[in-house]
Structure formats: structure tokens, C-alpha cells
Amino acid sequence: MHENVFVHQEMGDRNRMAKRMDVRMTEVAKRLGLSKATVSLAVNGRPGVNAETRQRIFDCIEEIRREQQESSESSFTHVITVVVINHQGCMVYDPQFDLMSGVMAEFSVQASARSCRLNIIYYNETEDNAGDIVRECGRSDVIGVIIFGAEMTTADRPLLKAIMKPMVLYDYRDLHGSFSSVCIDNRTAVMIAVDTLFSFHPSTVRYFATSTSFFNFRERRSAFFSAMSDHGIPVQRDDIIRLGVSIPEMQEALVSWLDSHPLPEAALLENYSVQIAMLGALKQLGIPRKRIVMAGIDELPDYITGAGDIHQIIIPHSERAAISMDLLDREIDGKWKVKTNIAAIPRLKAAAGG
User: Fold this and answer.
1) Reported confidence tier of residue 235, pLDDT bands at 50, 70, 90
2) What count of Cα atoms within 13 Å lies in the side-chain half-sphere of residue 199?
3) What is residue 307's predicted lDDT score, i.e. its pLDDT?
């Protein structure tokens, strides 16, 4: 396994997307003689680190990044570019938790295995010029492009069509047949979650969701209606409770909802951020976790779940990144005329004692 902790440095306004660097916290800590905890506090803008130490950490990150860039540019002549579509939906980046570093690490490993340098760029339509992204992808040394599409919308399709390079979509399923893609099997994920909840024979099941309508979430919500119907339970639209976008916003909404509604016997939590918000809300209200059976899509680190009271549907993030690179090889070779959509099957990680 690759170390799953990377530092990221925020440039400018802290409400903007943090720019990730492939720099391990352990490397920064070792160079400066600091603890990893100190480095983590600094790069995440947390209190507890004085200004001088914080600046030393950021200077060290920049120095390591320059060394990496110089080394990779001298070693590799070809580039694979990952375009991360970021519409501030807190899916590819959340200011409180960063759970996607493992994916970026896997992309980097896969690119190196192909003797290519990995270039990661971010696109937000409200801040960035799509033409700049197209020009960056169109460089002569770029041989292929991965679109990190967790937050992609139909409005982004003109950008994809303008990038005239071999391309694969990651974390998004192309329904138009124009691009090969690798995504989670969202319907199977929800079916596993609902079946797990019903094994406890609940009388009420609620679906707690974000307020965003990205592709994966639309599929999960649709699957929830189907899965509940399979169990003979009619679902009303208000059984899907939309909470917000950021974790603090969703936790506040959950506290309000739980304080004004009967506690459901079972809850399906749409993604990792909803899980974190639910755990925070239950703690804030003093409600024992055991009073509600919870199933969440995506796995949380043990240091967040604590007692492990949530049944989790594990999404194979890093494996999908590797598969995306394999598909990109085919696109670059140009030997396949057919486009391929791969749906990765998730698996259940049962709660402790469940």
C-alpha cells in the first residue's frame, strides 16, 4: 500500500480549492525535524503552529515540489494529465478531510510505471478559463488525459469535446457513449446498503443526502427508490433529506432535523461527508450511535468512525484509478474503436458487532 497522507497547500483565498502536492508529510517532517502532527496542523490551517514554523513548512513543501518537478521533467518526456473538475461540491476536496490522496497517489504510480510524468490540474468554471485547460492538455508532450469527474455536470461536456487527446473519465459514467469511463456501480452500492439495513427489520428508513446533484448521487437516489420498492416499502420524496454541501453545514442541518423529527430506526448515508456529519450530529445531541442502524456509502478511516458503528459500502478508489490508466493505454494505442464503461462493484464492511 502507498502512504495515504499527502500535504496540500492552499493558495490565496482559503475558500478556494487547495492545490495538492505529491509531498508526503513524513518527508517534510523529517527534513525539518518536526512531527507529522505539526506538519498536518500547518497545511490544514489549524491552530497550534506559530507563524515562523508554518512558513518553514510551506517553504519546505515548495522546495520538495520543485525537486520533484525537476526530477520528473528530466526523466520523462511524456505527460499524462489529470483534470480534476472542482465545482466546490466538497467531493474531490473537503477543507475538513482529504480522503482522495490515495487516488492521486495511484495515478502518480501508474504514470511512473508508464515512464510518464503526471500533471494534475484543476478546473472550476466560475474561476478558470476553459481555454487554459484545453491548451494545457493540448501540449505536445501530453499523450493522454484522465478527467476526474466526481463533480462533473452536463455543462462540462463542451470542455471534454475541446480536449483533442486520448481521454478516459474517472468517477463518472458517460451515458452518451463518447468516452470510456470507470465508475462505481452506484445501484449495487445502494442495494447492498438497503439490504443490510433491512436485515435489522427497521420500521423506518431515511436517506440522508448532500444538496448537490452530481451524477453518482442522482444514481444513488434513484436506486434507493428501487431498492425500497423491492422490500415492499413505498418511498416518498421527503424520505430523502438533503442537508447541504460542506460537513459543518450538513451537521447543523442534521442537528435541526433530528431535534424536530422522530429518530428513524435506520439511515442510509449518501457519502463519506454525510457519514461524518451524522456522527457529529449524534454526538452533539447526545444520541447513542447504537440507537440507529446506519449504512454509509464509502469507507471512512478508523480514526473518524471510532467504534465502527456504521456499515460501510467500500468503493475501490485506487483500483479504479489503475483501471482508468489501463483504459487510457487502449485509447492512446487507438486499437479499440468501441468505448467502454466499467462499473466497479463495491463491497460491504459490516459494522463492529454487526
Assistant:
1) confident
2) 12
3) 61
In angstroms, the CA 320 to CA 284 distance is 36
| Percent residues over pLDDT 90 in the chain | 51
* Cα Rg of the chain (Å, integer): 21
Q: Is the pLDDT of residue 18 over 60?
A: no
d(CA 302, CA 154): 35
Under the banding of pLDDT at 50, 70 and 90, the label for residue 25 is confident
Q: Distance (Å, rounded) from C-alpha 124 to C-alpha 85? A: 6
3 state SS of 116: strand
Q: Rounded CA gap, 120 and 145, in Å?
A: 10
Write out pLDDT tens, residues 81-133: 999 988 876 666 655 556 567 788 899 899 999 999 999 888 886 666 888 89
Residues 6+ apart with CB under 8 A from 232: none
Question: Measured between alpha carbons, how far is 250 from 272 in angstroms, rounded to an integer?
Answer: 12
- Residue owning grid cell 485547460: 133
Inter-residue contact 346 to 188 (CB < 8 Å): yes
Looking at the predicted structure, is the pLDDT value of residue 202 above 80?
Answer: yes
Residue found under cell 452500492: 189
| H or E stretch covering 158 | helix 157-162
Apex 158 CA angle, 175 and 88, nearest 5: 85
Report whether 297 contacts 189 (CB < 8 A).
yes
- In this prediction, residue 314 has a pLDDT band, given cuts at 50, 70 and 90, of very high
**Number of neighbouring beta carbons within 10 Å of residue 85:** 26
Cβ(299)–Cβ(314) under 8 Å?
A: yes
Secondary structure of 318-345 in HEC code, one letter for each residue:
HHHHHHHHHHHHHHHHCCCCCCCEEEEC
Query: For residue 190, with 0-12 CB atoms within 10 Å meaning exposed, 13-18 middle and 19 or more buried, which class applies?
Result: buried
**Domains of the chain listed by start with CATH number:** 6-184+318-344 (3.40.50.2300), 186-314 (3.40.50.2300)
Total-model pTM = 0.76
